[in-house]
Specification:
Blueprint: H1 17-27, E1 31-33, E2 40-42, H2 44-63, E3 67-68, E4 74-76, H3 77-80, H4 84-90, E5 95-104, E6 110-122, H5 127-137, E7 146-155, E8 169-179, H6 182-202, E9 209-212, E10 224-231, E11 237-247, H7 249-254, E12 257-259, E13 265-267, E14 269-276, H8 278-287, E15 304-308, H9 316-331, E16 334-335, E17 338-339, E18 342-344, H10 351-361, E19 365-369, H11 371-376, E20 378-383, E21 391-395, H12 396-424, E22 426-429, H13 432-438, E23 453-457, H14 462-472, E24 475-480, E25 488-489, E26 496-497, E27 500-504
Parallel strand pairs: 3-7, 15-18, 15-19, 22-23
Antiparallel strand pairs: 1-2, 4-6, 5-6, 7-8, 8-14, 9-10, 9-24, 10-11, 11-14, 12-13, 16-17, 19-20, 20-21, 23-27, 24-27, 25-26
Length: about 500
């Protein structure tokens, strides 16, 4: 009889993918639901991942000359309505403040006391209020380009929230730039897309497809929206970052003008771009397994967890002293330009329980250190890119010298595994019947699992887009930028098509 494999997460991915996701977030101690519906509390392990994402992205932004600032949480309603497509796109998601101050209602409760002169929208995004400030800051072509980013929270009133993926309030960065020409603005929007793609692959170990959104999927008010799309393990697409060429739409709405070299006043050209804490959800769904979270080393809060194993009191001092020295030695080593991050877990709890906690949290390397390891001057190592019970003893000095290389190997393994998975489920489809079959779940008990990404011709017909959303919940995720044009025939209309696009179900 085959030995039954036990896993830390129930149900497994194959049994119930949405519930598996929630259980991994809970088991890894990333976040939990807040008392306010649709909001979340990001716990220390989850927030540390976000801090590492911030640090790595911020360095990339600064290298391009982008500087950080901060803008108000509240936006006057009159600002939002200046750009018609923008307000239409966000109207259903806006939270609006209409009163200030509370007073007693005379029955032991409270009620709003004073109406505001103008309602305030809690920012769903900041183009309009930042545009109002840019109109003051930009006077001459010498003020350009203006490259600003803010790390902030935003509010979009979600009807069906899911931790990290869709919450009423979430954390993000939003970059906003002003340029003298359309060419400069478009080039910068494309450059930021490249930054996001490189970051996703090199730091998050998430392979992405760079592409342009269709008109129906564009950011409200943009002339072009560029995206990086990633495939999750249920084969759905996750929009992992976007960069928008806004043309002069927001410049005209906010009156952002500059005096050109010839002395003529001109409207500026603007961009905006952003990623959010949704990236933590992407890490869960790209790398997580049935034992919990797997964190890529580049963004892991800790690279190594040292777990003392002490069964007898007489061994305690020797084991703890060895672990303390090991921690100092490891922290002096380098990985990806940073000192190795080490957690020494001194909690008094059963060894097996402690080990499984760190497995579920996804720490890249865990070291179990007992009296035998001290005697042998060795470490007993488990790696999160390998099965939990696959462990090995390594001489301490050898492990200390190699820790950076091991972490780099884990990072590379995670990217290779995710890329192989994605490529396996990108399929070229040339007829309507095969398309519908591809997106029809094969297992009625687990309807979240379907085909993947369909590379399919499309004659840029919005009616086809709308029908496929209604029939299959499938949309054009992007027009790939790295795919050559390939004339063909749209399988839905029979009309000529210039190129293939990516269709997928999406979060």
């Amino acid at each position: 009889m085959a030995t039954q494999v036990e896993h830390a997460i129930s149900p497994t991915r194959a049994e119930d993918y949405p519930e598996w996701y929630q259980q991994v977030v809970r088991a890894a101690d990333l976040a939990e639901n807040a008392p306010v519906r649709g909001c979340m509390v990001i716990k220390p392990w989850g927030y540390a991942i976000w801090e590492n994402i911030q640090r790595l992205l911020d360095a990339r932004f600064r290298a391009l000359g982008v500087r950080n600032a901060y803008f108000p949480l509240f936006i006057p309603l009159s600002f939002l309505v200046k750009e018609a497509k923008h307000v239409e796109g966000f109207a259903k998601e806006c939270a609006v403040v209409t009163h200030h101050r509370l007073e007693s209602d005379g029955q032991g409760g409270l009620r709003p006391a004073a109406p505001l002169e103008e309602p305030l929208v809690v920012r769903p995004t900041s183009e309009t209020i930042i545009g109002a400030m840019f109109a003051k800051w930009v006077q001459s072509y010498r003020d350009l380009p203006l490259l600003i980013n803010q790390w902030a929270n935003v509010v979009r009133w979600e009807m069906r929230p899911r931790l990290f993926l869709r919450t009423a309030e979430f954390l993000w960065q939003e970059g906003h730039t002003v340029h003298a020409t359309a060419e400069e603005a478009m080039a910068f929007a494309r450059q930021m897309l490249d930054v996001y793609a490189e970051f996703a692959e090199s730091c998050l170990a998430i392979p992405v497809v760079k592409g342009e959104k269709t008109e129906s999927e564009r950011f409200p008010g943009a002339e072009a929206t560029f995206t990086i799309e990633a495939m999750m393990q249920d084969r759905k697409a996750l929009q992992a970052g976007t960069s928008h060429f806004l043309g002069q739409n927001f410049a005209k709405a906010s009156d952002i003008k500059f005096l050109g070299p010839a002395g003529r006043e001109e409207y500026a050209w603007t961009t905006s771009w952003g990623v959010s804490t949704r990236l933590i959800g992407a890490i869960v769904m790209t790398h997580g397994d049935d034992d919990g979270l797997v964190v890529p080393p580049r963004v892991a809060p800790a690279h190594v967890a040292i777990l003392p194993v002490i069964h007898k009191e007489e061994h305690k001092d020797a084991v703890l002293g060895y672990c303390e020295r090991l921690k100092r030695e490891l922290e002096a080593q380098q990985y990806a330009g940073q000192n190795v991050r080490v957690e020494l877990d001194l909690r008094e709890m059963r060894g097996g329980e402690k080990v499984w906690e760190w497995i579920k949290k996804g720490v890249p390397i865990r070291l179990e250190i007992g009296p035998r390891d001290v005697t042998q001057d060795a470490v007993f190592m488990g790696r999160r890119d390998r099965p939990p019970r696959q462990r090995e003893s390594i001489p301490r000095a050898e492990f200390v010298n190699r820790v950076g290389d091991i972490l780099a190997e884990i990072q590379a393994n995670l990217l290779a595994k995710a890329r192989n998975f994605r490529d396996q489920y990108i399929v070229r489809i040339d007829n309507k019947a095969d398309f519908y079959e591809f997106f029809t779940p094969k297992n009625p008990e687990n309807p979240e699992i379907h085909g993947g990404f369909a590379l399919c011709h499309w004659a840029e017909d919005p009616e086809v887009e709308a029908r496929l959303k209604d029939d299959l919940q499938v949309s054009v995720r992007c027009i790939p930028l790295d795919l050559d044009e390939e004339p063909g025939v749209c399988p839905f209309t029979g009309k000529p098509s210039r190129r293939r696009v990516i269709f997928a179900k999406a979060y």
